[in-house]
Structures are given as structure tokens and as C-alpha cells.
């Protein structure tokens, strides 16, 4: 299953966006309002919980500045990646799209499609305000 967020314009250079997303502490600012847990568990990893959903632990897998930041689930029970594709518009502006890719059975995919789509769109939208 692959889901894409809306593309958003960020008033930061592509390199600055990658640096920002490469610091896991910053993800707390991007989380939806219904967050009930956010904890940095390692320099490159965090766990978060949203109302009505299980806690999810993510870690930074790769940073290819200024183009992409790749995060992945720490647990292999729910294998997925979240990739921030960053494209420079000019030296102070960039466009960001989040891509969620997960390996789920058909039933699970149907259950998580709506909430995950909303989640990645919220992360992208909140990125425009930092």
C-alpha cells in the first residue's frame, strides 16, 4: 500500500527541511492535535501515540540531503516507511510530499488507509508552519 500526502510549500531551503526532519525531536511539532504520547527514545528514533491507535515507534533510516528523509517502523510487526521527498523551488523555498509505504494484508490496508492518509496530510500541513 502506498499513500501520498498533499504536496506543500515550505518557506525553507530543501537542505533546511532535511535538517529539520532529520532531528526526531521536531516531529512533536508536526503531530496532529489528538496526540497523547510523544517520546524521543534514541537520537534517531521516537515513539508516538494518537487517540484510538496503537503506539508507533519510528526511526530515521536514511537522510539524503537535500532530497529525502526516510523513516521506518522499528517493529517489523507493522512494516512501513515514511519518506519525505523534498524538492527545491528556489534557495529559500521547497516543496515537500510525504510518501507512506506499508506491507499490509487487504483487510488491514482497508482499515488503516483513511487514518494514515489523514495523518500524513496533517504532518505535511504542519510542516508549512515551522
Automatic annotation (TrEMBL):
Q: What is this protein called?
A: Orotate phosphoribosyltransferase
From what superkingdom does this record's organism come? Bacteria
